[in-house]
Amino acid sequence: MKAVFPLMLLGGLTLSACTSKQETKTTTTSETQTTTTATAGNAASGGACMDRIRKDGLRVITSPDYPPYESTNEQNQIVGFDVDMVNAMAEEIGVKAEFTGQGFEGLIPSLVAGRADLIAAGLSITEERAKSVSFTDPYEKTKNVIVVGVDSDLNGPESLNGKTVGVQLGTVQADMAAEIEGADVRTFNLFSEALAALKSGQIDSMIVDAPVGNNYIKVHSDIKLAGEMDGASKALATQLECTDLVAELNAALATLQQNGELEKLHTKWFSDQAQ
């Protein structure tokens, strides 16, 4: 998809999960880093985090309301690009992963509190977040898009002055919307709630990642795109001290990039725009 620039790709394991309002468990694993650098050699020798993860498994949290990155299917399983990617990375590392779904805003607090080992949720790299978590190498860079009703005449960020803009709590899109002069920003716990508000006429627009926006307009005929905005690189996130885990994830990500698995997953989830 035109707004997405994949950096690497991964294969998949099967995982089962719960809805976005419940916690769910699955098997998956691992990620990579950009702000905290560690060597693959350090990871291979183990370390404080990897020793425990190899014994007990990798605990992964996500917010499964953001297709095609992560969502729940009819069988109540967490599926998506991030899920398949992390599963493939887990397989490379040789660990099992457990997926739990929760609200996006609580992901970093849960990680910092030690209730998880990894965030896999289309998480954009920011300087503020890097104060609390360690990022892997980025696996993708995307633009953001404005989504409006199909009959709307809005076009571009400047047209949102005086208009209501829906965003998800705790996201970079919420930060971007706050900078739009005159915009009336409405926050939602889930992007799916913002979409429902847009379709029912409660808000005038919403801002999402380009792949997500493109997925929305393929599924919903009553909405359309109304301009692009700047984007950011996405990465997985670990606890700050888990440099050994970051190194393992980066090595696995590099392997998936080199063997073509990352691109296969990208084609599966973005070119086909699977829900």
UniProtKB/TrEMBL annotation:
Residues 1-17 form the signal peptide. It holds the Pfam family SBP_bac_3. Its main location: other. InterPro entries: Iontro_rcpt_C (IPR001320), SBP_3_CS (IPR018313), Solute-binding_3/MltF_N (IPR001638). The keyword Signal applies. It is found in: Cell envelope. Residues 57-272 form the Ionotropic glutamate receptor C-terminal domain. CDD domains: PBP2_Arg_Lys_His. Keywords: Signal. SMART domains: PBPb (SM00062), PBPe (SM00079). Residues 57-272 form the Solute-binding protein family 3/N-terminal domain. Belongs to the bacterial solute-binding protein 3 family. PANTHER family: ARGININE-BINDING EXTRACELLULAR PROTEIN ARTP, MEMBRANE-BOUND LYTIC MUREIN TRANSGLYCOSYLASE F. This is Amino acid ABC transporter, periplasmic amino acid-binding protein. It comes from Deinococcus piscis.
